Amino acid sequence: MPNLPYMAGSCSPKEKIGILRQHFVGKRSVSAVCKEYRITPGMFERWKKTLFENGDLIFRQMPQDGMDYLHNYDFVVNWLAEIFRGQTLGVLGMETAEIRRVCSFKPSEISVSAGILDVIFEDTAGKAYHLEEQRDMTENDLYRFASQHFSAAREWRDNITDILLISGRSYTGRRSAMC
After folding, report:
1. Which of 20-24, 126-130, 160-164 has the highest mean pLDDT?
2. pTM, full prediction
3. How far apart are the C-alpha atoms of 108 and 65, rounded to whole Å?
4. Most C-beta atoms within 10 A of its C-beta, which of 23, 54, 83, 98?
């Protein structure tokens, strides 16, 4: 038995991965792992399903992108994920399938500063919605947003829609389309 008694609801994400690793890497039977950690086979299967449904996020995060530590941005993304999971983006006036997950998408080559919320909503149809909320939009912010669009479009194979919400002072500069 482990030192601490485990209860399914009290396991951190890191602990859950450690438990799953014992089966997939350590080649222990599911029943032995479940017995040792006092979890049900159903709970084990839900954790496994979550891992495999969201595992591609690991490969989308580029090294040194700031995603290896918890900060306020992570809490916002987690909150959005809880609120929107199973819902649509109808509140934004968009017809979408149910949202499957919400993730952060911040490529390392683009600096991120305060006053920006930049997330990807992915629906059950596999379509992605790149949502950015930006306070006091500047021309540099537009270039950054365009760069992020192309990076995200590469990951979602152009199956992505951009949503830009601007608050505060809006950009009043050049308005011509750039191709």
Report:
1. 20-24
2. 0.52
3. 5
4. 23
